[in-house]
Amino acid sequence: TNYSVHYIIAILIILGGLGFTVLSEFFTRRIFHYQTGFSISKITVNSKIVLATTGWLLLIGTLFFLFVEDQNSLKGFSFFERVSLSFFQSVTTRTAGYNTVDFTNLLLPTYWVLIIFMFIGASPGSTGGGIKTTTFLLLIKSGFSILKKQKNVNIFKKSIPFSHIDYAYTLVFLAAVCVFFSTLGLSFTESGMKFEALLFESVSAFATVGLSMGITPALTTAGKIIIITAMFIGRIGPLTLTLSFMSNPHKDKVYFSKSDVLVG
Questions:
Q1: Enclosing H/E stretch for 96
Q2: Rg (the chain; Cα; Å)
């Protein structure tokens, strides 16, 4: 209940999750002139994406936790305390792993949203894991562009190269595969445990968050090895790990004729 400590830690988590590139850009682009004083030039699209996505995720996470857990884990607290606790959980689930409420007694909808937040994670070049905020926004914008039948993916009045979109889809696919197999493995080694607890453990390990529904000490040796492997892959990055084994990628020597395929 020491909420000053909550906010100090939350600020450190946010700064660590923004990424060194964004922080460096914010400070280095603050130019001082003896006549005009301080002036901040326009930040890059990457930093705009990181700041905007981080802000929206923090807001959505806080409101959702406050709404769903109001009569559960937040019951008995004042409004300020409920908001503070909700904000802290929204911050910590995406990268840090601290918790100020009992994560073993949350409601099922809360677990699912927290899993999504952990899977998204922090931002590129940060101390956090996950698929990263930029990847998440590229997927969202790409999906809307397809629905609107737009040829380009535009963010903040800039067109994003399709190579970046391809990397984003590949990264999410590999991350999902990692989570799938780690959860599948745990379902074999940790019989009798709830599925949501195993999924929560897998995503938390892959995103290097560190949160748990309380099952970590009870894992078998095989289960611990699975979690260790997921943490290792998540920290390096599934895309980086895959590319490291493809130092000499095969180049197509034959190009076949194109054909349409029904999707969906």
A1: none
A2: 21
Segment holding 52, helix H or strand E = helix 45-68
Give 219's DSSP letter: -
Mean pLDDT of 245-251: 60
Residue 177, number of CB atoms within 10 A of its CB: 12
Place of tokens 């099922």: 108
Residue 170: partners with Cβ closer than 8 Å, 6 or more residues away: 239
Sequence letter at residue 143: G
126-181: pLDDT as tens digits: 888 889 999 999 999 998 888 888 888 888 888 888 888 888 888 899 999 999 99
Neighbours of 134 (CB within 10 A): 22
For the packed helices 45-68 and 133-147, what is the interaxial angle rounded to 10 degrees? 90
* Phi (first) and psi of residue 250, to 5 degrees: -70, 130
Q: Enumerate the β-bridge partners of residue 155.
A: 158
Long-range CB pairs of 60-63, under 8 A, 24+ apart, other chains included: 60/90, 61/86, 61/89, 61/90, 61/91, 61/93, 61/94, 61/113, 61/117, 62/86, 62/87, 62/90
Q: Is the pTM of this model over 0.90?
A: no
Q: Which two tokens stand for residue 23?
A: 């922080």
**Model confidence over 10-49: pLDDT tens digits?**
999 999 999 888 888 877 765 444 555 555 556 788 888 8
